[in-house]
Amino acid sequence: MTEPTAPIENTLASGTAASSSTTAPPSSEVEKTALERVHLPRIAIKFCTQCRWMLRAAYFAQELLSTFSTDLGEVALVPVTGGVFTVTIWHATATASSEGEVTTQEILLWDRKRDGGFPEVKALKSLVRNIIAPNRDLGHTDRALKKEEEKRREEKGQKEENLQDQGEPKKECEDCT
Known about the structure:
Layout: H1 27-37, E1 42-48, H2 54-68, E2 74-80, E3 85-94, E4 102-111, H3 112-115, H4 121-132, H5 140-165
Parallel strand pairs: 1-2
Antiparallel strand pairs: 1-3, 3-4
Helix pairs in contact: 2-4, 4-5
C-alpha cells in the first residue's frame, strides 16, 4: 500500500513536509511544486454541504468525466458552506511573449448566485467544451442547445411583435426605406 502524500500547501519543493517552525520557500518554488501536481485542465465544483448539494456536484462531475474523459486532467469536489455552488476551470494557455512558456488561466464557468440557479448538464458541457476543445462536437447535446436557442429567438420575436401591436407603430429601417 502506498503512503498518502501531504497536501500541496504543506509540501516544500524538496519534497519534505513543512513544519510550523520552518519558513516557506520562495513563491516561485511553491508555484512550481503546485503546478507539477496539478493536472490541467482542472475543474473544481464547490458545493455547500449545509444545503446538501454533494449529490448534485457529484452528478455534474460524473457527466463531465463521462463526456470529456481523458481531455480533463481532473475534476475536484470542494465542500464549502454558505450556499455556494460554483464550477471553475483552470487550463493552460501559451503566452505569446516567450516560446514554450505556459500560464494557467482560471475561468468561473458557473456561479449559482450570479447565473441564477444550477446549470443544465448540456449547458455546462458546452461551457467546458468551448474552453478545452472548441471544435469538438457534443452530438445530441449540441442539437438540443441549438433547438433551445431557436425557441428563445422565436419567443423573443413574438414578444417584440406583441409590443409593437399594442400601440407602437412599427418602425422601418432607415436604410430600407
